[in-house]
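Suppose you are handed a protein chain with no further information: no name, no annotation, nothing but its sequence. What can you learn? This example shows the usual starting point.
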Amino acid sequence: MGGSRSETGPSGHQKAGHPEDDHPDTGAVGRPRAETSGYYRTESADHPSVGATDHRHIDPNIDPHTDPLIDLMLNCLHQDSARFPREQLDALSEDSRKRLFELAAEHRVVPLMYDRLTKAGVEWDTSMFHAYASAVARNNLRYFGELRTLLGHLGSRDIPVIALKGIHLSEEVYENPGLREMNDIDIMVRTEHLKETWEILTGMGYQSDTGIHYEAAGNYQVPTIIRRSHHLPPLLKEDVAAIEIHWNITRPGKPYHIEPWPLWQQARRMTIAGQEAMVLSPEDLLLHLCVHTSYQHIFSFGMRPFCDIAETVRRFDDRLDLDVVIRRAEERNWNRGVFLALELSRDFTGAAIPDEVLNRLRPDGYHPEMAATARAQILTKKEESAAISPSMVQFAAQKGALTKIRTAWQRIFLPEDVMVTKYPIRPGSPRRYLYYAVRLWQLLTYHTGRMIRMSRGDANLSGIVRRKQSLSRWMHGE
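A reasonable first move is to predict its three-dimensional structure. Written in structure tokens, the prediction is:
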């Protein structure tokens, strides 16, 4: 009932996400379906089971150079072929190979890892990587089929559309579309086309995971959603990726918010899934990737965003005007997050970011300790890192029982104009009180275990909270 985000894993099924639906930038990280003890396990014919192992060997506070398997993964992903760890890979035990696969699955880079392993001629059994990568490729083909139908409908109605993030990266940036695993399909239209786009998708069999229906609710829910968010609730359909209809790439009220019209001015046309659409300019694509992983998700999505950044820089090469990237980052007040994302991408993957670019973006008084904090956050177990919402970080930072109680009360009893955008209720309806009870149950179910762990001094969760607090404050210049 709540506005939880749904994402998909290689099995192609939707997975319910985060109940902190008041913060659409933060959702549960999409993981493969049917998680048993911490990593991908599915029995579908499309994605055979490879067994189940836990993630206790992944320390959420680990330094990237203290676990040789993390180091191996990073070297496999690095764009400098001289860094490829062939001898170390050949010497791995069967158990270590399985653990390396688990790390790649955790960071959503299995297809890219499998591509690097096969090109290097690694001789040990890579069937786990192959099964996962094959399922991603099949799912991506299915998603492109859905997108082709959607773009055809939009084109017939003369509705301009920009393909965002994963679907754009998979089509144009990566060497082949199967190398980029996708959580969902993100498109951007203008606000005057939201209703038509929603109607097209519901006509294709998609449904809202919040119970909100545009036709019945457009007069009071959607305007509030537009004021408070940058996309409508995700639309879901069995066995395909969720689709999010955006009208912007940033959320109103945030320090990093921008208006969308410059993105449209700079967007370019290209063919996606056999249909004409628009995509962000190379410069805005790179900036969006940086802002998404830094400001919007506080480095909680593992290594995949940095592979995206590296591949974007590689793909566009001299067509990417880095002077424009710097100027727009500064004009939009994104320079801190963009600097840190580019710095980390170069460090992790060898992305071809010149020293001059980083020197011009580097804020006065910058200390390398901030990059070390972000590295630790990136290598934290994603499921736990993404589950720590901004509201939970804010709650943990507050002092005194009364302050915490007041904050908890505000998180449960949201204003009526917010509740009607997240639950299927009308303004003034007494059903709102029922949904307050629903919301309380959702938050208790989702957060209680972690709050108990934190109250008992759990070092892993406390480390995640501290790092998110530190990174958020720094990026916002506090």
